[in-house]
Amino acid sequence: MIRLSKDELRRQRRARGRALLAAIACGGAVAAAFYAARSRAASPAPAPASAPASAPKPVQTGEAALGDWTTDAPGVRRRITTRELAKPFATPSVDNGPRMVPRPAGALPQAPAGFKVEEFAAGLNNPRVIRAAPNGDLFVAESRPGQIRMLRDADGDGKPEMNQVFATGLRQPFGIAFYPPGPAPTHVYVANTDSVVRFRYVNGDTSARATEEMIVDNISGGGQLRGGGHWTRDIAFSRDGRKMYVSVGSRSNVMERPELEAVEERRARIFEYTPDGKNERVFAWGIRNPVGIAVHPVTGDLWTSVNERDGLGDHLVPDYVTRVQDGGFYGWPWYYIGPNQDPRHEGKRADLRSKVLVPDVLLQSHSASLAMTFYDGRQFPRDYQYHAFAAEHGSWNRARRTGYKVVRIPIRGGRATGEYEDFLTGFVTPEGNVWGRPVGVTVGKNGALLVSDDGANMIWRVSYVGTNRTANTAR
Length: 475
What we know:
Blueprint: H1 6-25, H2 29-42, E1 59-60, E2 77-78, E3 115-121, E4 127-132, E5 138-142, E6 147-152, E7 162-167, E8 175-179, E9 187-191, E10 196-200, E11 213-216, E12 233-237, E13 244-248, H3 260-263, E14 269-273, E15 281-285, E16 289-295, E17 302-307, E18 320-323, E19 335-336, E20 340-341, E21 361-362, E22 369-374, E23 388-392, E24 405-409, E25 411-412, E26 415-416, E27 420-424, E28 438-443, E29 449-453, E30 458-464
Parallel strand pairs: 1-2
Antiparallel strand pairs: 2-27, 3-30, 4-5, 5-6, 6-7, 8-9, 9-10, 10-11, 12-13, 13-14, 14-15, 16-17, 17-18, 18-21, 19-20, 22-23, 23-24, 24-27, 25-26, 28-29, 29-30
């Protein structure tokens, strides 16, 4: 190996510096780019997974934050506040449901740089909520056929070696939870549309050991109606396992008729029980459709992902994700996003006006925010730790589509920052047709994010591979 003298090293450094300055001074872009490339080649290797995947983009605010599917892309950040609330009926209320098409050949959802998206499982039947068991097995609620499916990827290669039905005969199952919290559950709980049941369970079980045990038998069941009849019920346990939370959506859009008051008596609420289904109480109310609920792994706070009401125009009312306050009232049906009265209930319940809570994170209206989870894995960059992910199923009551993506919700010190970021997009074709609709999100045992998609009837796996490797490649 040739060793250069200190004088020779200094001479070469001066020469390189003069070359770069000359290139810049004369507009030599090619020369400057070549020199920059040589400098990058000599620089240290990319940061490990503990560093952010890429520099954050500026936060979109005001009207720009409202956007639609054409403005979605991984890394796009939005902050919607009460200042952006449109006037009721500022635009017509439209029926613009998704035009579902088969998944285009080779199409994959898009994630931020450094992340890899691949098929985990295909050919499922209406996959909705997805939860990871402590041993890493994935449990999926296939709501339409009324069953829970179990998937096992024992070797961690991103493909399940085992794919079979765990339990059948359920009634529009949605929420799934393992009890007690921790590494050794004794039961798996399932939230049907009209009840909560449980099955005896030991880590590794691939099918139910016995018939279901009824835990709560008086949940208000729902249909499946346009803009209402919310049938999904989610379930979660407090960190200490002493409390069981069950979410129940409204039957109607906004309780438009007086006769609906009796129907809505036990709806638009999150209930709290003991794990045996006793000691029922209302934990929070006035939440039109709290589709997804989750408990923060550090603070123990309960959070929810909510579908707000329809019929007031393109930009009303924002869906939201929020930390749920015990005893909190969130406005439905008389008010929305604080003390804003729904014009269809003009002058009603003035006594509640000052009690309406403003949610933590407002989302684009009509996004149909469904299941949510907190990232507690160790594979993603450190900046993702304990942030929330929520699946946006996609709009129908909006002239220009929104939703059809998974968003990340930054959380600092247990509180939301107020903004959110597009994380997984690309489920809409350039023509505006839809081929995929995210529903459930969970964190796998190896730290990958799993996303259920009831449009393509599959589960996607998102892993972090680092910015120096190719992302979004099919297996």
